[in-house]
Automatic annotation (TrEMBL):
Annotated ranges, domain Glycosyl transferase family: 192-344
Origin organism lineage: Bacteria, Bacillati, Bacillota, Bacilli, Lactobacillales
Organism: Periweissella beninensis
Pfam families: Glyco_transf_4 (PF13439), Glycos_transf_1 (PF00534)
Protein name: Glycosyltransferase family 4 protein
Residue ranges annotated for the Glycosyltransferase subfamily 4-like N-terminal domain, each copy included: 14-183
Signal peptide: none
InterPro entries tied to this protein: Glyco_trans_1, Glyco_trans_4-like_N, Glycosyltransferase_grp1
Amino acid sequence: MNIGLFTDTYYPQVSGVATSISVLRDTLEEMGHQVYIFTSTDPKVAKNVYERNIFRFPSVPFTGFPDRRIAYSGGLHAVQIAKELELDIVHTQTEFSMGLMGKFVAFNLKIPAIHTYHTMYQDYLHYVANGKLIGPRTVKTAVRNYLKNMEGVVAPSKLVLDTMLAYGVTAPIKIIPTGVNIKERVPQNMANELRKQLGLALNTPVALSLGRLAFEKNIEDTIDAFKTVVAKLPNAQLVIAGDGPARNSLEKHAKAVGLEKQIMFVGMIEHQDVAQYYAMADVFVSSSDSESQGLTYLEAMSQHTPIVVMESPYVKELVTDASIGCAVHDVAQLSDNILKYLKSINSLGDERMLEAKIKAVSAEHFGERIVEFYEEVIESYNTETQKNNESFFNSFSNPFRH
């Protein structure tokens, strides 16, 4: 199958969407399919650099979100490329420029298009004119209009499904949680080596927060919860890995609550080092309540690191045993459960439940379900096209009928 993935964000940009698309591409290619990425240009990628099966289109920074890009031309060129590649299906990953281009390509090539809804935009409205220009109702209308004429929608979680239904989306929707590349567990000696590099003793209880440091991630709540943890477990340490617009504010907050010695900001880390950070930690923490698929949760699980995260419909499906972690409602519960895992390192719950869950969220399982959906959509599209053609020609078959 020849598959076109259309996205505004892709490597070297760092985001959960870019990661999920990379996982999808690698998995589909391992299954024998041809995958082509249609995306925006990036200042970090020189024009003369060869990127296998990646096509970049002229773009500018997105207003209010400068590390994201918006393509402004290339629709006809994309159609030409897609035609030469003989795409069987278009899979858009954004509702903006490249998503619209993907719909344009599918329409011109008369092939089906499906979409994955990654982002709960109502949690990001503050990036545009401080939330004064665009409101939730505008988002609802825009998303519903974008998904018109789509042959299918992938919802990474029940939360996304419920949102799509509330928006009035009529296209077929299937819940397919994004998978992660389940790598071998990082050896203990490598995890210990990272601790040494960070200046952490091997017996230090360590909590990890990893991801983009954005205001909507509510990382201040993690810091506030950790203040209570340190009061009861003075040698505990919180490592915050990642970068973003909220970093300066978070560093100031950590200092304001007197935790500058107990909280370590390590900045952006290389993708190949992420697993080592999860393995180094005793518990992974997230106080974000805007996650639609929680890739960091899955990555932590793959290294057998328990997670303490905010409750949501997605998390309810994911966290089914103490070996996986727990879901909490507020800062008080966050601190209580961080403390519980730091005091009972790797001794809670049934490891067999964790292993089963890891297998269920593997990239291989994810790829199999996506391909099944592709096949269903293509078959349905071809059947509908054939019916429409027959209906059209039948209308001319008897010119004398009344």
